[in-house]
Amino acid sequence: MRTPLTTLSAMATAAALLLTGCSGAGGSGDGVQVAVTTELIKDWTEVVGGDRVHVETVVPPGGDPHSYEPSPNDAAKVSRAEVAFTNHLLLEDHPLIKLFDTNVPEDAPNISLAENAEPYGAKLIPLVENIRLDTVWLGFGVRGETATRSAEIGVRLTDYTGPGQAAMFLTDAFGQPEIYWNTADGLSAADAITLPPNAHTHVNWTFTEPGVYTLTTAATLTDDGATRDVGTATFTYAVGVNPREVQPGALILDDGHADLTADLDTGAFLVRDDERGELDPSEVVIDVPTKAIEEIPAEEQFAFLGEAGASIYQLPQAVLGKHVHGEIDPHLWQDVANAKAYVQVIADSLIQVDPEGRETYEANRDAYLAELDALDTEVAEAISTIPEANRQLITTHDAFGYLADAYGMQVAGFVVPNPAAEPSAKQVEQLTETIADLQVQAVFVEPNLHARASVLRQVAEDQGVQVCALHGDALPHDTPTYIDMMRQNASELSRCLGGDR
């Protein structure tokens, strides 16, 4: 498998090899064939390319790029591409990225827009995870530069000790658990969690009895058809017992956000803590306190945990659905200035493939950049009418960090420790208190992520708080353009939070 061209500098180096016999828009009735992942990218590409391009989108209108599963027909679309655009920064689900990297022709540029946007003036911000739990928020991660973006890293449980059973699973947005390992079923090489490079995910950790557990994990990297071992480590958990008595002098991991992380470059397996940095697993005890006790849901799909209603110790995944991402927020376009950078990357990429169209692409680009400048001003003015105390965002999806950063808002979060089950009275109370403490006038749901919004809708409606709509990853059905989307978002924010637009 080839390594995709993910930077324009790399693309320029290869320019002499790109489609020297290509008819491009000048010699093909269909125009330059472009494959893209999302409707947003299609919109920008069609504006810049005009009638010189023919754009095919893989994720359908209203689809979620975080979870879309490609089909054989999608592979055919991508295989026709003379240039391909993804957002990446782990916005798209890994199978979608692999679809592009496997099927885009060898001589066609395969461009990750977000990674290329910074030299054109885009501002990248970290994906801040500030959910506050009563326990440590523990996930799995991968880091390192010695892999292509379509590589896969498998992490499996190779050994464990403890007084009861342990399970690690993820609950999707529709309430179905995906079990990565469950010691009650024994250990199997097939039981593994798979991640792309430089990603991490949040999972549920459960233990059936109090006591000290050890879990030994091993990681393997599969890339370009070859597989190699990455690292192994043993992690210690104090479940319902005093963690300071388990290993005197050890660092107790009992709050904040941390990942058990495989380092592809060094072969180490370590703990990466947001506040404390890199930690040696042998010097850490992970605290699973008595306050982490939850009841096993009655739903049949959770029977693998034990008898319904029985108590279980759980470190929760704390976010709705599958949540694999990197350390940089990939939703750059919620800041209009970043969308301008995307447009410039697209224009330059089309010129590389179809130099005869330079005049058209540059004219379309410049006209659209002027429209985006006006849009940026319009969005800023609409949000500026919101009283400063009301500029709080509570949403179902962490897609609006750039909007908040660019236009003077603050993103607030909420916690539902087990998103699959009906919320307990305690969980509803916690969310109610969050909304009351912030004195928000509205909460926001994304129309294409309706299934994730039930808890937020319930509590908001109980509190007499408006439930409003924001478009994040998908364009509005009625007016499917980026400019329309951002205008609608700005208007909805202003309307729902006390502004006058």
From TrEMBL:
It comes from the Bacteria. The keyword Phosphoprotein does not apply. Pfam families: ZnuA. Its main location: other. The keyword Membrane does not apply. Residues 1-25 form the signal peptide. Keywords: Metal-binding, Signal, Transport. It is found in: Cell envelope. Belongs to the bacterial solute-binding protein 9 family. NCBIfam families: anch_rpt_subst, choice_anch_M, P_ac_wall_RPT. This is Anchored repeat ABC transporter, substrate-binding protein.
